[in-house]
Design brief:
By secondary structure, the protein is α/β, with parallel strands linked by helices. The protein is 44% helix and 12% strand.
Length: 259
Amino acid sequence: TRICASAVHRGWSVTSISRSGAPADSHALSWADKVNWHKADILKPASYRNVLEGADAVVHSTGILLEVDYKNIVQGKEGLLAGFSRLAGVGGGRNPLEEGEGERERVKVTYETMNRDSATTLAQEASSYRVPSFVYISAAASAPLLPKRYLSTKREAESTIASSLPKMRSIFFRPGFLYDSSRAFTIPIAWGGSAGNMVNSMLGGALTPWFGAAVEKPLKADLVADAVVEAIEDEGVKGVIVTERIEELANKAWRKGML
């Protein structure tokens, strides 16, 4: 929703595609009524093809950090230890023949499906409608406790999109941890990440191979959203966008907003 808000503030026509459609708190968002909230399944192009016609840019911001229901962890419905136990495949597996429909649906939420396939599917559809620009929110690196597939699937998505759709301007954002005051649990994580980033900088980046995104500078979600919109508007921007470049684009957007 942060990207939608930033685009609306530019005066753009904005459509959001998601499984849920409009967010539950859309009534409290002053800009929400200016967005076309389209309910669809990103892996089923037929459910959203009609909104791609005439689009100037498409942004893919769907993805998962864990192959567990991390929203339940955040909301306190499942313990953090239990979540990571299921992530690691310990603590007793379920018999798939005994799973209900909801459980079978959850099996589809994998790194390959959400981080890679959803992005390549959307990019292909956007290209078929001659959308000139495609933005993929990737990641700077992995982090301790995360499986290698978290990052490898994102890099696979980047590689596939860049190589198979060369006529489309592809922009791959690689931020570190994103935080926002509306999600209180992200603030202490960002504090820890900022401290780690400072230490890593003093050591010349020596900690990066060991800790990855855990020592990458955390960025505020609003800042990244402004940078995405600025990147779309600036036709000279393409390829991989790392933290420093994200901040430059956000600053450029801020200066425009002050005029």
